[in-house]
Amino acid sequence: MNQRCICTSVVCLLLAVACAAARAEDVYFPGPGESWEHRLAETVGMLPDKLTAAVRFAEGHEANWLRDLQAQIENDGASEPYPGVLGDIKPRAGPSGVIVRQGYIVAEWGDPERVEMSFGLANSYLSTLAGLAIDRALIGDVDEPLWKSVRDTGFDSPRNSQVTWRMLLNQTSEWEGTLWDKPDLADRRRGYQRTLRPPGTFWENNEVRANRLALSLQRIWTKPLPQVLQAEVMDPIGASTTWQWRGYRNSYLQIGGFAVQVVAGGSHWGGGLWASAQDHARLGYLMLRRGNWAGRRILSERWIDQATSPAESAPYYGFMWWLNDARKLLPSAPESSVFALGAGGNMIWIDADHDLVVVAPGWTSRSSIFSCKRCCNPCRNDGARRAPFV
Prior knowledge:
The protein has a six-stranded antiparallel β-sheet with strand order 2-1-14-13-12-11, sandwiched between helices. The protein is of the alpha+beta class. 25% of the residues lie in helices and 15% in strands.
């Protein structure tokens, strides 16, 4: 599916919205699990026929990926310099999704409770854990060099000693090294053999560096990151117990005398965050409500603002959240829209202007909204093969 197709579905959905967002005093927050209330479109100011059209469009436009993700990942990685799979992989099902308006579920399709690999969506969960660490003063400041708090030789070199939390979060770090048998050049999507730029000056979506952020956060929290996510975010927002966050077979640390697996920042080489559309929708709704959940402050508004502010060298990207700067990613959506994006058609779309959250695993193409050639050219490949993974 190309960008035009995605924009068509967005137009259908926005045409369905016929009134303003809910008043603050009327904001609804779902209870845990199946207690999430469903509403008819017309009761939340939506046009049923337009909403139905948007859902049918999503159902009819499956991602251009094999459902056998083992074969998909291996095939796509065949021309990479370090293609080996390191983590578990599970097959995907057909398109599924959920649309949330004013906090209520107004549409679902496929199996929105099925757990799927989410690829780059894991980046946005890492961002959330970093926000929690900042809010709790485990990290002093996003502009603090990591060597000051993460002491594992990963930031000892002259280059890497300049890397700050901000740079890792907005993917401008240009961190150089090898982690879990993958050197950073294994995912240099803008040219495998290119010359590295000064830290903080060049944007590249690089999963090795996302994994370096995961390891750094693991050092800071000193407990398994899935445990932190569950206690601090997923349980408070009523997520299911079915989600998992996996690492690689070689991504273990000794913490307190126990072997702890460090999570993967995506699923490029297997592992990563596996969750249902409904659980992703809860994270999206937390972001939509600016870190508040039914009166409980989970993430500070200061962090939400930082996470959704554009990087200086990449105005379409915040702290591992994609931004619709100048409507370049989705021209039909508001410029204020925020996205989590992952390969294989994974998306969490957060539209505060229309009080919408849309989660749609498996319905967009890998060559669509995050293609180098079809949106804002964030990934101009400088002579390298277009990287298939987000």
